Amino acid sequence: STSLQGRKAVVTGAAQGIGKAIARALAEAGAKVVISDINGEGAKAAAADIGHGAVGVTCDSTKVDQVNKMLEDAAENGAIDILVNNASIVPYIAWDDVDIEHWQKIIDTNLTSVFIASRKATDMMRAAGRKGTVLNIASNSFYAGTPNMSAYVSAKGGVIGFTRALATEVGKYGIRVNAVTPGLIDSDGVKGSPHAESFGFVEMLQAMPGKGQPEDVAKVVAFLVSDGAGWMTGQCVNVDAGMIRL
Ligand code: NAD
Ligand code: 4PL
Q1: 245: phi then psi, degrees, rounded to nearest 5
Q2: Which residue, of 69, 123, 201, 239, has the greatest Cβ tally within 10 A?
Q3: CA separation (Å) from 172 to 166, 167, 168, 176?
Q4: Which whole-number Å values give the CA distances from 73 to 67, 77, 80, 218, in the listed order?
Q5: Do residues 117 and 67 make contact, with C-beta atoms less than 8 angstroms apart?
Q6: Could you give the residue numbers annotated as active site?
Q7: How confident is the model at residue 166, as a pLDDT?
Q8: Among the listed residues 163, 140, 150, the one whose alpha carbon sits nearest the alpha carbon of residue 242
């Protein structure tokens, strides 16, 4: 079934954009959702907008202590059932401007954060004997080698590698680990960035023309974290209107 009734879920970076749409889709499917974001005010506003008992909390996904506490709180003396690692920075930066500071910030925020939350969440699931699931938001830029985001593309490749490895490590406990690779999406972050100028180009490559919306990703995520996808793990599902043909 695709119902998430009674499940406890955490979505990181969910104050806006794709994360917020995922939080809404999980809440509408019956999950109790914690919206975690470095922008705590935005997280609380998103929770109020979504309703269904969603809660917004402040948490920097790069900080081990903050993430561990956020997940302990969300678990309410048990374990969460669903972790969606969505928080990330979506930079637009010419290759000539990519320095070590940029590289390390993006690897930390977009890749190491996924390890930090997955380490804690899967440890808690195992301790509680819970067959939970982790869903990572990667990007089709890993396949396309999209320009002006070299550190980002590298981090997302790392996320896909980690998805495959973690699925193996925790499969014996019944914990599933999957990823999705959205194409360019008209999220809050993209609307206010130079990426918004790229829609014409990516639509030309898509089998189906159109601007990808956060909800297009959220629907697929809601399925992948449900029991309907119970025999899927270690997979990476591409969601980009056919821009990339795997
Ligand atoms: P967005 O910029 O609209 O939202 C990102 C959210 O993450 C923000 O609320 C921000 O506050 C939060 N965040 C950033 N750093 C954080 C940190 N250290 N700790 C906690 N929260 C933090 O982004 P979006 O476009 O909705 O992207 C969401 C996800 O989808 C990201 O993983 C992104 O890489 C991925 N993605 C986006 C696109 C796209 O075109 N928009 C395409 C493919 C993949
Ligand atoms: C194809 O993940 O996958 C722009 C910005 N274009 O963040 C992305 C493509 C962007 C992408 C992405």
Answers
A1: -110, 105
A2: 239
A3: 11, 9, 8, 10
A4: 10, 8, 10, 24
A5: yes
A6: 152
A7: 99
A8: 140
Question: For residue 101, what are the contacts with CB-CB under 8 A and spacing of at least 6?
Answer: none
Q: How much distance in Å is there from the Cα of 13 to the middle of ligand 1?
A: 6
Atom of ligand 2 nearest to the CA of 243: 1
- Which token pair is 62? 């790069």
List, in sequence order, every beta strand (DSSP E) within the chain. Answer: 8-12, 32-37, 55-58, 82-85, 133-137, 176-182, 236-239
Q: Which amino acid is at 246?
A: L
* In the block, residue with structure tokens 């997940």: 71
With the C-alpha atoms ordered 147, 137, 58, 123, is the resulting torsion angle positive or negative? negative
Give me the residue label for tokens 């918004």: 196
The reply to whether the predicted model has a pTM over 0.90 is yes
ipTM greater than cut 0.95: yes
Q: Whose CA is nearest to atom 12 of ligand 2?
A: 184
Question: pLDDT class for 132, splitting at 50, 70, 90?
Answer: very high
Instruction: Determine contact, residues 119/112, Cβ cutoff 8 Å.
Output: no
The per-residue pLDDT for 143 is: 98
Closest CA to 221 of 16, 5, 20: 20
For ligand 1, atom 12, the nearest C-alpha belongs to 13
Give the integer Cα–Cα distance in Å for 177 and 163. Answer: 6
